[in-house]
UniProtKB/TrEMBL annotation:
Record InterPro entries: bHLH_dom (IPR011598), HLH_DNA-bd_sf (IPR036638), PRE (IPR044293)
Protein name: BHLH domain-containing protein
Origin species: Urochloa decumbens
Domain BHLH, residue spans: 5-59
The family this protein is said to belong to: Belongs to the bHLH protein family.
Signal peptide: none
Record key words, sorted: Growth regulation, Transcription, Transcription regulation
Amino acid sequence: MSSRRSRSRQSGSSRITEEQISDLVSKLQDLLPEARVQSNARVPSARVLQETCNYIKSLHQEVDDLSERLSELLATSDMSSAQAAIIRSLLM
């Protein structure tokens, strides 16, 4: 019973409609690469959310890989330590 009360209190002022959820899921789907989800096809919301999570994880991995690669390049470059420090500060 208490969970029902807390749910009704929370949803009283900030209720989101199914139409709004559908619109947000559609916007997420539009952000995904075409190869992952076709934007013109009706895709279940759960799949769009899962694909969004997978895509964000892959972007994080790509950032990590590029950061590591850049660090390696900075370590082997002929630039001065001052220049390298400036580049590192911009990346942090």
